[in-house]
Design goal:
- The structure holds two protein chains of two kinds.
- By secondary structure, chain A is of the alpha+beta class.
- Chain A has one domain: Sufe protein. Chain: A.
- Chain A is built from six helices and three strands.
- In chain A, strands 1-2-3 form a three-stranded antiparallel beta sheet.
- In chain A, a hairpin with a 6-residue loop joins strand 1 and strand 2.
- The longest helix of chain A is centred in the last third of the chain and has 16 residues.
- By secondary structure, chain B is an alpha/beta fold.
- In chain B, helix 3 packs antiparallel against helix 10, helix 4 crosses helix 10 and helix 5 packs parallel to helix 6.
- In chain B, the strands form five sheets. Chain B has a seven-stranded mixed beta sheet with strand order 4-10-9-8-7-5-6, with helices on both faces. In chain B, strands 13-14-17-16 form a four-stranded antiparallel beta sheet, with helices on one face.
- Chain B is globular, with a radius of gyration of 22 Å.
- Chain B folds into two domains: 143 residues, Aspartate Aminotransferase, domain 1, CATH 3.90.1150; 255 residues, Type I PLP-dependent aspartate aminotransferase-like (Major domain) (Aspartate Aminotransferase, domain 2), CATH 3.40.640.
- Classes of the chains: A alpha+beta, B alpha/beta.
Chain lengths: 140, 415
């Protein structure tokens, strides 16, 4: 994710006065996220997490000079879809090195969503970030 | 019923006993804690009992004979007596301290189950059971070749007793049921279940995790062969629970974990087991937690279990009234008068997790997910549900805050 894109996201979240505006925006981001085709919503693509259903598909793109990772994900949760939209901005079409170097915890702390990265086993979103990082590590 | 038990709870006074209820959530909202079916909070009396034992009376139990050891021993055995009184068991020997309900189920499955079950034997559960009252029996079935059967529930969450009776037969060795479903809230007809189970020659295991905190538990009146409950759901510490078993059954069962305390004599050739209850309490037990549990049980006894149940019923009825007509609302389980103090629900088209997260932003703690009852959720064709569960310290105002928070959440998600 370019610095400009991160800054834009931070600027947007800075405008919000309360939790309602923050969550309304996340839900809107989720509304704009493309749905994963039904054939991808299978057990093999499901990210294990207790509370919501999350599916993640990753492809390695043979871009030059370094391959990049193309990600697509979906969830039955509107809020998680919004978070996926943020995650796609950060991670998709980046090199494995860029993905691993990005401070996702820092970003989520700044936008007031740190609780989504808590190590709760019930949190599918945390598992998704972990899985993306594992995919990046394997692709290095 | 005495006059005192008929009086409504003085909730304001009770709440003052629970320091954690003063919490401010997300920097601005007073906490509304409605996740009591998962775990309750603790009053000062329990916290002080824990602090007191560590400050004044702690040593290992059933080993040393010094001054502190004697004190710790007395308090630990007093705690066993408190638990015996609470469940109305005949003898304190029938009270085994465990880490919780799950540990109690596993203990019985591993000992009684492994010793008694043969290929073709059957274990009858209900589809509404918590995973902790399913998986240990499935594991037992894998080890022994026994089969696990599930009695169905109706669309409105009642156990279908005709089917239950049909599923019982001469091969049924054990019936294991919860007194109250942790999702539907249904209070199962334990009297009838007991009569049918024993008539078929099966033993009865009662999972009292969701009932012991809320209504009187009388193992003799219900004629339970085994019963388990957890301390953390009854204002007690986490990591402590009680397993009750009829003395003759416990006596005949092989021990579970091996280690200190559970032996009589150990030689290089082998060992002989200790008598009850030490036989099932290998290693250093959760001493302070057991003493804390006694304080918790005394606390709820003093408040009065009938009053607690009546209070929760009133809150549940009020919650039904306030949310039943919300657009897309689907409440799981029966009408409030057949339930324990909880309401599980889904809003059509919305993820339960989103509801829980948005009401949490408004200070209201509820749970979303499958609540460790995946077979039950599969029965209703849903992946999860949201659940608000009440306890003695919850108020009508809190139910109103919950209903309002729920309305706001739905509005945000529905735009």
């Amino acid at each position: 994710m370019s610095k400009a894109a991160v800054d834009e996201l931070l600027d947007t979240f800075d405008l919000f006065d309360d939790w309602e505006e923050r969550y309304q925006y996340i839900i809107e981001l989720g509304d704009e996220l493309e749905h994963l085709p039904e054939e991808h919503k299978v057990e093999a693509n499901r990210v294990q997490g207790c509370q919501s259903m999350v599916w993640l598909v990753a492809d390695i793109e043979p871009t030059q000079p370094r391959p990049t990772i193309c990600l697509a994900a979906d969830s039955d949760s509107q809020i998680v879809r919004g978070l996926i939209a943020i995650l796609m901005k950060v991670y998709s079409h980046r090199t494995p090195e860029q993905i691993l170097a990005f401070d996702i915890e820092g970003l989520f702390t700044k936008i007031g969503l740190k609780n989504h990265l808590s190590r709760s086993r019930s949190n599918g979103f945390f598992s998704m970030v972990n899985r993306i990082r594992l995919i990046a590590e394997a692709a290095q | 019923m005495s006059i005192a038990t008929q009086l409504p709870l003085d909730v304001a006074t009770l709440r003052a006993d629970f320091p954690i209820l003063e919490t401010t959530v997300h920097g601005q909202h007073p906490l509304v804690y409605l996740d009591n079916a998962a775990s309750t909070q603790r009053p000062r009396q329990v916290i002080e009992a824990l602090v007191d034992v560590y400050e004044h009376a702690y040593a290992n139990v059933h080993r040393s004979a010094h001054y502190l050891a004697a004190m710790a021993n007395d308090r630990y055995e007093d705690a066993r007596e408190a638990a015996r009184r609470f469940i109305h068991a005949k003898s304190a020997h029938e009270v085994i301290f465990t880490s919780g309900t799950t540990a109690g189920v596993n203990l019985v499955a591993r000992t009684w189950g492994d010793a008694n079950l043969r290929p073709g034997d059957e274990i009858l559960l209900t589809i509404a059971e918590h995973h902790s009252n399913i998986v240990p029996w499935q594991q037992l079935a894998e080890r022994t070749g026994a089969q696990v059967k599930f009695a169905p529930v109706s669309d409105d969450g009642h156990l279908l007793m005709d089917d239950f009776a049909r599923l019982l037969n001469e091969r049924t060795r054990l019936v294991a049921v919860a007194t109250v479903s942790n999702v539907l809230g249904t209070i199962h007809p334990l009297g009838e279940i007991e009569r049918l189970a024993h008539a078929a020659g099966a033993l009865l295991f009662v999972d009292a995790a969701q009932s012991a905190p809320h209504m009187t538990t009388d193992v003799q009146a219900m004629n339970a062969d085994f019963l388990a409950f957890s301390g953390h759901k009854v204002v007690g510490p986490s990591g402590i629970g009680v397993l009750y078993g009829k003395e003759a059954l416990l006596d005949a069962m092989p021990p579970f974990l091996g280690g200190g305390s559970m032996i009589n004599v150990v030689t290089t050739e082998g060992f002989t087991t200790a008598r009850l209850p030490a036989k099932f309490e290998a290693g250093t037990p959760p001493i302070a937690n057991a003493i804390g549990l006694a304080a918790a049980l005394e606390y709820v006894e003093q408040v009065g279990l009938e009053r607690i149940h009546a209070h929760e019923l009133a809150l549940t009825q009020y919650a039904h009234e306030l949310v039943a007509d919300l657009p897309g609302m689907r409440i799981l389980g029966p009408a409030p008068e057949h339930k324990g103090g909880l309401i599980s629900f889904n809003i059509e088209g919305l993820a339960a997790m989103d509801i829980a997260e948005l009401v949490d932003q408004q200070g209201v703690a509820i749970r979303a997910g499958h609540h460790c009852t995946m077979p039950l959720h599969a029965r209703y064709g849903i992946a999860g549900s949201a659940r608000a569960s009440f306890y003695l310290y919850n108020t009508r105002e809190e139910v109103e805050v919950f209903a309002q928070a729920l309305r706001s959440a739905i509005k945000m998600l529905r735009r």
